[in-house]
Amino acid sequence: KHNPEGDAQFLEDESTKIFARKVADHYSARTNQTLEERENSPIIHLKKLNNWIKSVLIQLYTRRGDAVLDLACGKGGDLIKWDKAKIGYYVGIDIAEGSIEDCRTRYNGDADHHQRRKRFTFPARLICGDCYEIRLDKVLEDDAPFDVCSCQFAMHYSWSTEARARQALANVSALLRPGGTFIGTMPDANVIVKKLREAEGLVFGNSVYWIRFDEEFSEKKFKSSSPFGIKYKFHLEDAVDCPEWIVPFHVFKSLAEEYDLELVFVKNSHEFVHEYMKKPEYVELMRRLGALGDGNQDQSTLSQDEWEVAYLYLAFVLRKRGQPDRT
Ligand code: SAM
Fold it and tell me: In testing the pocket of ligand 1, which one of 94, 156, 167, 240 has its CB within 8 Å of the most ligand atoms?
C-alpha cells in the first residue's frame, strides 16, 4: 500500500546515507602528503594555524593520564598533540576507511614520512565507523568513561538531520564522565550566513575557498524551516571538497544542554587567536609551528585569504554536568 510519509522518510534516510558516504569517500581518497607537498600547500599557514588552535584547546583542557575519545579523528593528525599532553588512553573513530588506515600507520610509527619519532606512550584503539549514526556506548562499553572528548573540524557533518545531530551529542554525553570536557572546532554559521547575505548570489569565496548553497536555499526558508539539513558545498584548496551543513550555534547549544552538556565557551577563530596570543607560552607555540612566520624575512606568513578562511570557524568547549569523582 502506498504510504507517502513512509516513502518520504525512506528517501530522506537514503539521501542522508548517500551524503555521509560522499563525505567519507572524499576524505578516504585524500592520500598522505609528503613533507614537501605539505610545505608547498597554498594553505600551509592555515593548516599550521588550525594545528595551533587545536593544540591550545588540548593543552587547556587535558590532564596527564586522561582517557580521550577523538570523534572523526581523521588521519591522526592530533596524535602528537595528545602525546605531548601525556594522556593515558586514546580511542579514535572515523568514517573514512582510508583515514583510519593512515591513522593506524601513523600510530604504529612505520612508514611515517612526516617524522621519525619514538612510539606514542599511550595505548590506542582505532575504529572505522559513523559516529553520528550509531550508538557508541555499546561499542565502547569497555573503554568508557572518557575524561575528554574531542571533535575537530567535523561536528557539522552530523547536522544533516536532527536524528544524526542528536546521536552525535548523545554519544558524547554517554561516553564522558560527569565533569568531563568536550572540545571542538566547526564552521561558524554566523560568519557563513553573513557572507552569504553580502554575496551577489549563492556562491562566495576567495583564492583558496568557495562555498555554494543549493538553488533551493532562500533566506526566508532558512529562517522559518528546520535548523537541520541546511546544506552547502565547501571547497578548500588542497583540503576539502564535499557537502557540509550549517550548524546554528544557539541550536547546537540548547540541543547539547538536553544531553547534559553545558557551554563553557565559544569563540570565533579570530577571537581565539587574539585571546590566546596574549599568553607567552602560546605565542612561543605559534612561533614553533610557524603559522605566522617567525619574524624572519624569508619565512612567509598566513595570507589574507587564509586568514579569511580561519574566520569561517569557531572553537567550543562544553562540560558534562555532574561532579567529577576524582580530584
Ligand atoms: N579531526 C581531524 C583533524 O582535525 O585533523 C579530521 C578533520 S577532517 C576536516 C573531517 C573528518 O571528519 C574526516 O576525517 C571525515 O572522514 C570525518 N567524518 C565525517 N563524517 C563522519 C562521521 N559521520 N563519522 C565519523 N567521522 C566522520
Answer: 94
- Pairwise CA distance, residues 139 & 321, whole Å: 23
The DSSP line for 184-240 is EEEE-HHHHHHHHHHSSSSEEE-SSEEEEE-TT--HHHHHHS-SS--EEEEEETTTE
Dist. CA 255 → ligand 1 center (Å): 21
State the virtual CA torsion across 33, 35, 40, 45 in degrees, nearest 10.
100
Q: Is the dihedral of CA 118, 120, 125, 127 positive or negative?
A: negative
Averaged pLDDT in 10-residue chunks for the chain of 327 residues: 69 83 88 81 94 98 98 97 97 97 90 62 96 96 98 97 97 98 98 94 96 80 82 92 95 98 98 96 93 63 95 98 76
Question: How many whole angstroms from its chain centre is CA 16?
Answer: 19
Residue 2 CA, distance from chain mean position? 41
- Three-class SS state of 148: strand
CA nearest neighbour of 311 among 214, 229, 198:
198
Per-residue confidence (pLDDT) for residue 311, from 0 to 100: 98
pTM of the model: 0.93
The helix/strand/coil state of 279 is coil
Segments in 62-161 forming alpha helices (H): 79-84, 97-108, 136-139
Q: Which residues line ligand 1 (CB under 6 A)?
A: 20, 23-24, 27, 72-74, 77, 93-96, 99, 130-132, 152-154, 157
